[in-house]
Specification:
By secondary structure, this protein is mostly helical. Among the domains are: 1-177, Arc Repressor Mutant, subunit A (Orthogonal Bundle); 292-470, 3-Layer(aba) Sandwich (Rossmann fold); 629-692; 881-994, Serine Threonine Protein Phosphatase 5, Tetratricopeptide repeat (Alpha Horseshoe), CATH 1.25.40; 1141-1178. It contains 57 helices and eleven strands. Helix 18 packs parallel to helix 20. Keywords: DNA-binding, Transcription, Transcription regulation.
Length: 1182
């Protein structure tokens, strides 16, 4: 038996399969159930009738054996598509009257998990912990999640759940043996709360509490366990808990953590050698070595070293750098700090500026697609370069990384990432998701428990399956003994234990404790154990300040100056801030270095952020603010960059200084030019705190509001509104009013935007005709989008477009949408839409609202858009507006859906949805994305995926146009699932009465007719479908009329053949490829169509559906061909090869001579994606 080593199955969560890492489509729910049942029986033969009973229960079809055989056949082809018919039996084999699954033990995650758990007895604690951690990572959710309620899987799920519970308990026990007691108490409390009747969990919790020097809490936990067992089960604790209680009371030495050697020999391999200052980190260094080795082989990686302050994260980062140096990789490093969090892309600049110092290299590294990154770096953007938005900068930085990695394997390290500025953190998350195929390793350290970190860094990186998370543990008692010996000399066991317990094995706390004991002349013997307890009870800040106060006053003043100025401060600035001479300052710095307050290297830095925190926190708040004010003044006099001065002004007293406001605004402009919107908001909000004159305040409010519209719509609207009220110039007021309305459309409750636009129009003076047209356009469009009563936004005569200004184009876009809604004058709608989009002017002045509307009108009017979406995407990338980029992707995806380019549509929508998450939107824009994605999945026949999309969309507010579109897509899904009642129930009055007469944009009539027909209400269904056809004849767009004719003809039965023929005729030659195929199938099914004509129609429909990826239509065509006695090749193995538009563009550019990177830059893809597409097309690497 030659089994496929690349095939793997996962059942610890949803049932999925993969071949060589690529997902395998396992078909529908019942077909997957066959595979799940075979996995459960693990190589045993399962009788065919037993399988049929599991799959269908009492709802079996007329011929279950035949259906089962078909399922098995489909599974074989999908699991081994490249194997011959004879070899396909290798995985699912026929045996007697049943089937068996033949896979190696490590091919199924549940089997691997069980083997791993069974292997742990007899392993060392460290090895057991490693094995169990790896095993538990296999779980992605409840076992056999989609079948969990089925009776045939219940016992297996229960068995796996019990095994998982045992594995979690064994893992925590192993970690207890490794000395993690204090850190494990919280985990064990949570584990006990999950299942408080498992005595083993109580035992581990009590042991952890005892080893963490919490004997009273350990005894209290035993009392809780005793009471709970008595109340719930009426029994006393078992022997293990009773024995443990006696040992806790007696403080038995057997309860202490076992002692282990610093490193254990490995059979057949040398003992790992650690640097002298790196102890107890064999596992972590091995992981880092693996990542660096993978980098040397051309593979990407990302490591996040997470843990409490002082645990040794920075030292592990240094080890990663050392390993990278040995491997010949290029290392670019940065360290974040609290003071510099307001520096836009501050960490990114630290990383890349060393590589850009050579002017001859700048054009090479920052050329082509990397050009957007120039804005980040001082002196490289050029004085006449436009400001770049967030997305252009992220895209440019990504390509800068690609260019550097093309020269040598690249390692990017960031220390203290919890203080990383938001713009840099956004780039790092953006980069990590696109590392595939790049020889780039990203290594970051992050202090756990920092406020605000969970949703930013953890949400983007720590939960990414691509990221390796390292959590270094506290030092063992033996490692603590080694450090004691290094500082104080050989120590007595009780002295070492006291040092270890007082610091919980934290390396920084231990070193500070030992340094304090050394300065007091303490000997490491039994008589000084009490001294350890007295000194060690102080926090690190107290220890640092205790030592600092023993130094001369000048030394303390210098330490404070360094803490205020920030690390990397220069000696002259330090001396001036501390009011000392430079020679005295240099001597003080030397004293601080020898005392391990400052690190012994340049630029100046504290030995640890906690030490800096101790010095800085010892300053009274008022003194800190005054020192920051002096620092700002000093740096301004030294011509420091505005953002450097502004970092101190953020912490200085408010004095109503115009100079302070100007500096903060200048720093904000720098941040915006770099695409660091978050930093600009912080700086401008601080500028507002300075009491200044109304004119200056209005300008600050406008600048702040504009930036906030990218990040926080409601805040942006509020600040822009305040600016509008302060302004006196009518033209400027009109400009700001339009900004306010646009922001309200996407950020505020329905009606707010319209009300503001009405009020602004009323006070607009004569002579500002173009501005008035812009406000009218926004007033009317916001009313439509929020589905307000027409009298609130469309009262009075229809406005006329005047001139060719921006406002005129905005009004034309709105009016063409009104014509579309009314559905009467398609030529007029096209004329207005083309004027609105002429010269792409609207793309420059609108943020993705009105030009989208005009483009959609042209689409629904069957007017050729040409290369509009390519131009729009290129402009959005060039300007870098994230909202513009995601808008193009969403509506381009809708266009591709209408054209039957389903794979391209799904990819465009996936890109847009990812960008939507980056932008942070969860309102009306998100409903459009969900509606379009759901519609694509239904067309692709992926009803399970569509159901998941709909479930996720339930969390969104179904309001406005997006809510209507989402309700229509949900109805399509229900109809495809054969649930007409659910479809009809979702088409509520709010959906079917939106004031849109044109079914080309409001398709509820056809959906409702289909649902009524499914419920037997044929007369009503035909009447509604006929109404839809009449309305669409008036509009005259073939791609909309054809589907309506197809539905009407299908509902009319024998009398509908004329409608069906007209549907095929109308759709032939249009862009609606899938709708044409659907109409061809419907006509072929009609009893009056001759067999020869029907087969021709069905073959054409099948070919089109396969080419478009419309699996549902393809299945319908195949079924109808089979009814007529024709059996073409299975679409999974035959038919034309589907090449999406994206694949075609990649192949065309590659054939034209462009290399992988050039193709990726031209199409806004990653090199990994291009390489994968070329490999798939050619069967080998490009």
């Amino acid at each position: 038996m030659d089994l496929d080593p690349m095939l793997s199955l996962r059942v610890l969560g949803e049932l999925t399969a993969a071949r060589d890492g690529a997902p395998v489509d396992l078909g529908g729910r019942r077909q997957r159930a066959v595979l799940a049942a075979l996995v459960i029986h693990r190589g045993q033969v399962v009788a065919a009738d037993r399988l049929a009973d599991l799959v269908w229960g009492d709802r079996a079809p007329a011929n279950p054996a035949g259906a089962l055989q078909a399922y098995v056949s489909h599974l074989r082809r999908r699991l081994q598509p490249e194997a011959g018919a004879r070899r396909r039996g290798d995985v699912i084999a026929r045996a007697g009257n049943g089937y068996q699954l033949r896979l190696p033990p490590d091919a199924v995650d549940a089997w691997s998990f069980e083997r791993a758990v069974d292997s742990t007895p007899g392993l060392s604690a460290a090895e057991s912990a490693r094995v169990l951690e790896d095993a538990l990572r296999l779980w992605r959710g409840p076992a056999y999640a989609e079948y969990a309620s089925e009776s045939w899987v219940e016992s297996e799920v229960a068995r796996l759940d019990e095994l998982r519970a045992v594995a979690r308990e064994r893992l925590l026990e192993a970690r207890l043996h490794l000395g993690d007691a204090a850190l494990l108490v919280g985990d064990l409390e949570a584990l006990v709360a999950e299942d408080p009747l498992r005595e083993e969990r109580w035992r581990l919790l009590v042991l952890a509490l005892y080893r963490a020097q919490r004997q009273a809490d350990a005894l209290a936990a035993l009392r809780r366990a005793r009471g709970l067992l008595a109340d719930e089960l009426g029994v006393d604790p078992g022997p293990a808990l009773r024995e443990l209680e006696a040992e806790v009371l007696a403080q038995s030495p057997t309860l202490d953590a076992p002692r282990a050697p610093l490193s254990a020999p490995v059979d057949g391999a040398p003992i790992p050698r650690e640097p002298t200052d790196l102890v107890d980190r064999v596992r972590e260094t091995a992981t880092l070595r693996r990542l660096v080795d993978g980098l040397a082989a051309g593979g990407p990686g990302c490591a996040l070293i997470e843990g409490p302050a002082g645990i040794g994260k920075t030292r592990l980062l240094a080890e990663a750098v050392r390993l990278a140096d040995l491997a010949g990789a290029r290392v670019l490093a940065a360290r974040a700090s609290e003071l510099e969090r307001s520096y836009g892309f501050g960490v990114v600049r630290q990383l890349f500026e060393p590589a850009l110092r050579d002017p001859d290299r700048q054009d090479v590294l920052l050329g082509a697609a990397a050009g957007g990154a120039r804005a980040v770096f001082d002196g490289l953007a050029g004085t006449d370069s436009p400001s770049h938005g967030n997305f252009a900068v992220l895209h440019g930085l990504y390509w800068l990384t690609v260019n550097l990695a093309g020269e040598a394997p690249l390692v990017l390290t960031v220390d203290d990432a919890q203080w990383c500025d938001a713009a840099s953190l956004r780039f790092l998350a953006y980069l990590v998701r696109r590392l595939e195929g790049l020889p780039v390793l990203v290594v970051m350290t992050v202090r756990s428990g920092e406020e605000g970190l969970e949703e930013s860094l953890h949400g983007e990186l720590a939960h990414d399956p691509f990221v390796t998370v390292l959590r270094p543990r506290p030092l063992s008692a033996e490692a603590a003994g080694a450090l004691v010996s290094e500082v104080l000399g050989e120590g007595a066991d009780s002295f070492v234990r006291a040092c270890h317990r007082m610091t919980s094995g934290n390396p920084l706390l231990l070193r500070q404790l030992l340094r304090a004991l050394e300065e007091e002349g303490v000997q490491p013997d039994v008589s000084h154990v009490d001294t350890v307890r007295a000194v060690g009870s102080r926090a690190v800040s107290s220890l640092v300040m205790l030592r600092l106060r023993r130094m001369p006053p000048a030394v303390t003043a210098i330490a404070r100056a360094v803490a205020v100025l920030g690390e990397e401060a220069l000696l002259p600035a330090i001396a001036e801030l501390a009011a000392l001479g430079e020679p005295e300052t240099a001597a003080a710095l030397d004293t601080l270095t020898r005392g391990e307050i400052l690190a012994d290297w340049l630029p100046l830095t504290f030995v640890h952020p906690l030490v800096r925190d101790a010095v800085y926190g010892d300053l009274p708040a008022a003194d800190r603010a005054l020192l920051h004010e002096r620092a700002a003044r000093l740096l301004r006099e030294q011509a420091a960059a505005p953002e450097v001065v502004a970092a101190h002004l953020l912490l200085a007293p408010r004095r109503g200084s115009r100079e302070t406001v100007d500096t903060l605004r200048a720093a904000a402009r720098t941040a915006m030019a770099r695409g660091a919107s978050d930093s600009a908001v912080v700086l401008l909000r601080r500028a507002l705190d300075e009491p200044v004159q109304p004119d200056a305040r209005a300008q600050v409010l406008i600048e702040l509001g504009l930036v906030e519209t990218l990040l926080d719509g409601p805040a942006g609207a509020a600040h822009l509104t305040e600016a509008y009220e302060l302004l006196a110039d009518p033209a400027e007021r009109a400009r700001v009013a339009m900004l306010v309305v646009r922001t309200h459309v996407f950020a505020s409750a329905p009606g707010v935007a319209t009300q503001f636009a009405v009020a602004a129009e009323q006070v607009l003076p004569e002579g500002l005709d173009d501005e008035r047209q812009g406000l009218v356009a926004l007033r009317r469009m916001s009313g439509y989008m929020h589905r307000l009563p027409p009298e609130s936004y469309r009262a009075g005569p229809t406005p006329e477009v005047s001139g060719s200004g921006d406002g005129a184009r905005m009004l034309a876009a709105t009016l063409c949408y009104e014509v579309l809604r009314d559905g009467e004058d398609r030529a007029r709608a096209i004329e207005l839409a083309r004027f609105a989009l002429e010269d792409d002017r609207l793309l420059e002045v609108d943020n993705g609202l009105l030009w989208i509307v005009a483009a959609n009108v042209l689409l629904l009017a069957d007017a050729d858009l040409g290369d509009f979406w390519d131009r729009a995407l290129a402009r959005a990338h060039a300007t870098g507006g994230l909202f513009s980029v995601l808008s193009v992707n969403l509506w381009r995806g809708y266009t591709q859906l209408r054209h039957g380019q389903l794979e391209d549509a799904f990819q465009s929508l996936a890109d847009g949805t990812e960008q939507l998450q980056m932008w942070g939107a969860s309102g009306i824009t998100a409903t459009y994305a969900a509606a379009f994605t759901l519609a694509v999945q239904v067309e692709q026949g992926d009803l399970d995926g569509a159901t998941e999309t709909l479930t996720a969309a339930r969390r969104l507010p179904w309001v406005g146009e997006g809510g209507r579109l989402l309700a229509e897509s949900a109805a399509r899904l229900f109809l495809a699932q054969g649930c007409p009642a659910e479809a009809l129930g979702g088409l509520t009055e709010d959906v079917v009465r939106p004031g849109i007469a044109n079914p080309a944009w409001a398709g509820w009539r056809g959906l409702k007719a289909g649902a009524m027909a499914g419920l037997g209400r044929m007369e009503e269904a035909v009447e509604l479908a006929a109404d839809e056809v009449a309305l669409l004849r008036r509009w005259g767009a073939p791609t909309s009329l054809g589907p309506a004719l197809r539905l009407l003809g299908s509902l009319r039965g024998r009398s509908g053949v004329t409608d069906l023929r007209e549907a095929v005729e109308v759709l032939t030659g249009t862009t609606a490829a899938v709708e044409l195929a659907r109409a061809q199938v419907a006509l072929a099914r009609h009893p009056e169509v001759a067999d020869g004509e029907a087969v021709t129609l069905l073959r054409a429909a099948l070919s089109t559906a396969q080419a478009c990826g419309a699996r549902g239509v393809a299945r319908d065509a195949l079924d109808e061909l089979a009814v007529r006695g024709h059996r073409p090749e299975d679409p999974a193995t035959g038919g034309p090869v589907r090449v999406s538009a994206r694949e075609r563009r990649v192949l065309d550019l590659s054939a034209a001579g462009l290399d992988v990177n050039e193709v990726a830059q031209a199409l806004f893809l990653t090199p990994g994606t291009v390489r994968a597409l070329l490999e798939a097309a050619s069967g080998g690497p490009p």
